[in-house]
Structures are given as structure tokens and as C-alpha cells.
Design brief:
- The structure is a single chain.
- With about 375 residues, the chain is α+β, with helices and mostly antiparallel strands.
- The radius of gyration is 37 Å and the shape is elongated.
- α1 crosses α2 and α4 runs antiparallel to α8.
- The protein is built from eleven helices and ten strands.
- A three-stranded antiparallel beta sheet has the order 2-1-10, with helices on one face. Strands 4-3-7 form a three-stranded antiparallel beta sheet, covered by helices on one side. A two-stranded antiparallel ribbon has the order 5-6.
- It folds into three domains: about 240 residues, no CATH class; about 80 residues, no CATH class; about 35 residues.
- The longest helix is centred in the last third of the chain and has 34 residues.
Length: about 375
């Protein structure tokens, strides 16, 4: 798939914002992996409650949009701003920057808080008030060197499939428009006589005139000259009928009449058929999205064993994203307050691996005598929240 950076950008934004399957997976990751509360410690001491109160809403929005950007770009890019005198992280909006992969050498200008590496994402903000020196880039996936480096993204395969689907849908639309109309083709055969008589010469002139003008209805001037002004009385009756019809409709602007010669065959073209199925492409797209986000489809959960396996697979993905969020928060806090990264500790709730689907599950846990009083309280809060 070859496209311009602007087309690629629009396709990526459409995937993460408008595609139902992709958007549903991102929203589910946000609801499961983003913690409700975060405890940040600096130098071994928790930050002040007043600072925590100011940062909490900004960090919540920051984390939700960071997951979206991480899947679209492969990294999170933000700058530093202030709210009520307190430094806060400010994400660059999707579409407000372009990126690629560049080699890092001794001559390459270093970015703020950049780890040693051989290749890195090259980010170019489009906003006039955002400079390269003011941005921070935190990698979700390390950059990969490929032949096609137009806005490299973890969603590249989905973009390719989405492009194929768009082309297929456009072809289907054209096929439907073609099949809604009648399409007629004609073929005509003219046998040129081999003799050199007057009739043969006259017919040859008629055929030459037909090739030049495409007119079947005009009278042959050479025939009139050789046979007199009343020669049309000796013509074939079908030619006289054609000449009369032409005269009747010559001044009629509302109708168009096409008179075909008697040696014309008329054929109707059959409708077009497109073998590719859009339904199959949509199913393939949904399958690819499911594999990318590690969220199996409901059709894959046929039995209890399979259901337990896919739930375990999904929990591992949630924990992976939770660990990424923890590292991102640690890096972001150190960046906006300009403190050493090693002095920052972040504590947040991990996604639970326990699924309670019914009262029977709670009963089995109680009978196993593995629950502590605090666990019972957590289960009660969980159940009351879902009511």
C-alpha cells in the first residue's frame, strides 16, 4: 500500500477513533488497565495531598489518551505545561505531529531524558508554538527499521487491510451501478461485392460514408446522379422508410431515434459479478483486531476450558498495559518536575485475575477458606459496584 503521509494519518486516526472493533478494544483497555487511583512517592515520601488532588484529573485523562496514542504511533509524546502554577503533562493531539525512525549518532541532537539508543522515533510537531526541544517521547514499542517508513505504526497491518476493504467496497458500488442499467451492444456485417458494376460501386461508397460519418439514413448522391432525381423510387422499401422516419424526427428535440440497418445484431450485456466478499473481509478485520489487542472473540469461548484460557490471555494483556502505564507515570512525573527518575515510585492497582460471574463463584471461594476479611470486603464492593 502506497499513500501520502496525510492519507496515512487520516487512516490511522480513523482506525483508533471511528472503527468500531478497534475503538471497543481501546475503551476496554482504558477501563481495565487505567487505575482509579495512583499513589506517587518522591524520594521515599508520598507527595502532598494538595498536589495529588491537582494532578489526579490531569493524569487520568493523560493515561486514557496515552493508550490510544501508544497503539497508533508506538510511543507517547507530550510537552510540559502549567495549571494554577503546577506543572502538568500535555499530550500532543493526534494529527498535530508527524514521525519516522532516524539513526542516532554522535552528531544527533539529544532530546530531554533520552536513553542511549541506536535508532529513535523522530517526531516533528506541526503546532507553531511547540518546539522540538520542548517535547518528551516515551516508547511503547521500540522502533523497527523497515523499507516503508511513512508514519510507522503498530496498526500498519490493519491499515493495509482497511485499504483493501475500501477498494473492494468502491468496486462493489461501481458493480451495483453498472448492474442497475441496461447495456446494449450492436454488431453489423457488410459484404462488399467483388464486381465493378454500378451497384457494387454505389454500395462501396455507402460503406465508406458509413465508416466516416456513421450515418445509415442518408441517400447516396452518386446513386441520384447516375439514376436521376426519381431514383429513390427504385430503392429498397426499407431505405425509403428510414429516410421518411428521419425527416419526421429531424426537428424533434425531445426524442432521439436510432435506426439500425437490417443486418445489425443487438446483444444485451450480462451483469457483472465480484467474487470478493465484503463479509469475509470484515470477519478477517475483526479477527486481526482481536489478535492485536489480545481480546478473543465471543465465538472463541465455546467451552469452559477455552473460556478460562482466553480470560487468562486477556488478563496478561491487561497486566502488560498496567505495567506500561506505571512506567509512563514514573517517567512523566520526573519529566514535568525535572527530578531524577530513580527517586519516583508509582503504586497503582493491578488488574485482577479473578473473574466472578455468578453467586456460585463467590460460594466456591468462601468454601475454599482462602479469603481474608479484606478480600471479602473487596468482593462485596465489586459486586455492589456492578449492581
Amino acid at each position: 500500500m502506497e499513500c501520502s503521509p496525510r492519507e496515512k494519518m487520516n487512516m490511522l486516526i480513523e482506525l483508533v477513533r471511528l472503527h468500531p472493533s478497534v475503538r471497543a478494544c481501546i475503551q476496554r483497555l482504558i477501563s481495565e488497565a487505567v487505575p482509579e487511583s495512583v499513589q506517587i512517592s518522591e524520594g521515599g515520601k508520598p507527595i502532598k495531598p494538595a498536589l495529588q488532588k491537582v494532578l489526579a484529573p490531569f493524569f487520568a485523562t493523560f493515561l486514557e489518551n496515552s493508550i490510544e496514542m501508544a497503539y497508533m504511533c508506538g510511543f507517547v509524546v507530550f510537552t510540559r505545561s502549567k495549571h494554577e502554577g503546577v506543572p502538568i503533562p500535555l499530550l500532543l493531539p493526534l494529527g498535530s505531529f508527524s514521525w519516522g525512525v532516524e539513526m542516532v549518532t554522535e552528531r544527533t541532537k539529544k532530546r530531554k531524558r533520552e536513553c542511549p539508543n541506536l535508532y529513535r522515533y523522530s517526531v516533528h510537531p506541526h503546532h507553531p508554538e511547540v518546539n522540538l526541544d520542548d517535547i518528551y517521547v516515551f516508547e511503547y514499542l521500540p522502533p523497527a527499521i523497515r523499507n516503508q517508513q511513512c508514519l510507522p505504526s503498530p496498526l500498519d497491518k490493519l491499515c493495509t487491510l482497511r485499504f483493501v476493504m475500501d477498494v473492494t467496497e468502491d468496486k462493489i458500488q461501481k458493480v451495483l451501478e453498472w448492474n442497475c442499467q441496461k447495456h446494449i451492444v450492436t454488431s453489423e456485417q457488410v459484404n462488399i461485392p467483388k464486381d465493378t458494376t454500378t451497384e457494387g460501386i454505389s454500395l462501396l461508397d455507402d460503406f465508406r460514408r458509413y465508416l466516416v460519418t456513421g450515418d445509415h439514413l442518408g441517400l447516396n448522391k452518386r446513386f441520384l446522379t447516375m439514376n436521376g432525381l426519381r431514383a429513390h423510387m427504385s430503392q429498397n422499401p426499407s431505405n425509403l422508410s428510414n429516410w421518411k422516419i428521419k425527416e419526421e424526427f429531424k426537428n424533434d428535440e425531445m426524442e432521439k431515434v436510432h435506426i439500425l440497418p437490417p443486418n445489425t445484431d443487438v446483444h444485451e450485456l450480462a451483469g457483472l459479478k465480484l467474487e470478493t466478499s465484503v463479509t469475509e473481509l470484515h470477519e478477517l478485520m475483526q479477527r486481526q483486531v482481536s489478535e492485536l489487542f489480545q481480546m478473543p472473540l465471543l465465538t472463541d469461548m465455546g467451552s469452559k476450558d477455552i473460556s478460562a484460557f482466553v480470560q487468562q490471555k486477556e488478563i496478561k494483556q491487561m497486566k502488560y498495559m498496567s505495567n506500561f502505564i506505571k512506567r509512563l507515570l514514573q517517567y512523566t512525573y520526573a519529566a514535568i518536575f525535572d527530578v531524577p527518575l530513580g527517586t519516583i515510585e508509582v503504586q497503582c492497582d493491578q488488574p485482577s485475575a479473578m473473574h466472578i460471574n455468578s453467586v456460585d463463584d463467590v460460594k466456591k471461594l468462601h468454601e475454599s477458606n482462602t479469603l481474608l476479611p479484606s478480600d471479602k470486603l473487596k468482593i462485596r464492593k465489586h459486586l455492589m459496584k456492578n449492581l
